[in-house]
Write a structure and sequence with these properties.
The structure holds 2 protein chains of 2 kinds.
Chain A (H helix, E strand, L loop, with lengths): L1 H12 L7 H10 L14 H14 L11 H20 L17 H16 L5 H16 L5 H20 L61 H13 L9 H9 L4 H16 L3 H29 L4 H6 L30 H17 L2 E7 L7 E6 H14 L5 H23 L23
Chain B lengths: L3 E3 L5 H9 L35 E7 L2 E5 L7 E3 L12 H6 L10 E2 L8 E5 L5 E5 L2 E2 L18 E2 L2 E6 L4 E3 L1
Parallel strand pairs in B: 2-5
Antiparallel strand pairs in B: 1-11, 2-3, 4-10, 6-7, 7-8, 9-10, 10-11
The chains are: A mainly alpha, B mainly beta.
Amino acid sequence: MKKLIIALTVLVGIGLGVGTASAATAITSGGNKVSQPPPGGTSGDIVVAWNQQLLQIVLTPGAQPATVHPTRSFAILHAAIYDSVVSITKDAPPYLFSVPASRGARVDAAAAQASHDTLAALYPNLNSKLQAGLDQLLAGELVAIPDGAGKQDGIKVGHDVAARLLAARANDGSAATPPPFIAGNNPGDFRPVPPSFAPPVFTGWANVSPFVLDTANQFRPKPQAAITSVAYADALNEVKSLGQNTSTTRTADETVEAKFWAGPIWNTWNEIADNAALAHHTNLETTARLFAVLNLTFADGVIAFYDAKYHYVIWRPVTAVRLGDTIGNPAITGDPTWTPLATTPADPSYPGAHSVISSAAAFVLSSFFGKDDQIQVTSDVLKGTVRTFDSYQAVMTEAGLSRIFAGVHTRLDHEAGLELGRDVAQFVLRDSKSSDFGVESKSPNAGTTAQPPGGY
Amino acid sequence: MHSKLVLTGGLVAAAFIAAACSTTSSSGLYGAPSSAPSAAPSAAPVAAPPAASGTAINVGTTGLGQVLVDSNGQTVYLFLADKGSASTCNSSSCVQYWPPVLTSGAPVPGTGVNGSLLGTTARADGTTQVTYGGHPLYRFISDKKAGDATGQGVTAFGAPWYVVSPSGALIR
């Protein structure tokens, strides 16, 4: 019976889940199965609506606990939606848990309920407006579904999956108090940065259990080139020139880029993915899969880059340029008054978060929609500006390099970030296509289930 | 066939296959006593509970009826991917969500538990896991109190997980 389902999927899969030829090709080559949508499963709008609800929460000052990284919430939300949907369709293995479900259960009811339960549990202290927003979104989605056993079964699946996933992540280390950071004084050592000299953030985030990776340091970048090297001098001199607040070498458009991309980069890429899913009319299951893979990648990417940042603890450009004369690198001249265009984030430089997340996102989105796509991006920071691109890689490159123009990263941070993001995305995507999504790939025993799961 | 599956005795040899397929599972996370005699002849069914240090297996009541529970009353499950008595749940994420029921000696049957079906299996990390009818037993991370059975019928790590009746039958 399982074989029949797979064969049917191959026959009807191409083109059903998406609206354009390029997207269909991408889905075929990417191996993402697209099967006949079950009742309520033709549209991925529910996934996008809940993603936007979470974006609204994390963009509200004070709603997100300062020591819990928001990518954790996106990952749990979308894992819950995805596992709810595949509990019913049984087209693919779950990320973590699929629960018993009748074939007639409505996938849209399941996705809506799982989303609501997840966000309500992750954010118990929302202001009344955001709280009402969650309740109204759920009520609006459920009222559109005809009453009956299928709707009730779907709601139960959503409840059941959300409860189990939340329990699974309840003790993942995210609630731990971050350890205090003790800065070194040697050239190259990260230390709190001007103007506020705030203590660095997420000092212990690498200890959070990864969602898919085996370990946080699985793809840790190689050490950065020594600060006495020519390569480091080239990278620092580049940001010193292009990233200064009064730079005369940075073009007007590069200044716009620096400001446009200054917000939390995982938010921007989720907004890009929202637009892509709507434009391609992906069905519920494909949309759920896209957002699950994307946000599991982001969450693990953040765990991985914090592992690297606090392993290497490399200083930021502002510190390096101001103390340039202490480095002992003949190609570097210090400037004690140098100030970057943007405010430097309160964490070590290497690797660059924008580059990690953008590389991961471009890899995932390209695998779903093809390398070339029409992409319009807006910014939560620079309102009213729209930037257009014709490939996800072009978006990635601009977002990453914008941090050099902002004066907060070197090209070495960027390049190491690109590699780390791609490694994490590749790993999550490969894992999501295996018959045991969520099982660690390195476990020899995981491979012993050669027969399709559930064939009893 | 789909309503009940009677469990048969496990194979001792399979335990050694599992031990050979060593993985990176961490040990000691789930309260494994350090004195676990992993080299002891383990999987032989015990007729009497001589070892005071063995983990008790009892019978508890859930919404699914009478099922096997651990010494704290937590519902225990079997994993359909386990074909013999060797556990196939060895990755660190699998044992994180489905902690194996470990013992440091012969497991102790509580009232209603058939002692001749109780046994043990050597895990890949060197700890000793309780088996029933030859099937390794696990708890589920989402069960919070006695009587919970939130893992029932859940498919995870490639196969479904089910509660076990005192007779050794899997309950669907």
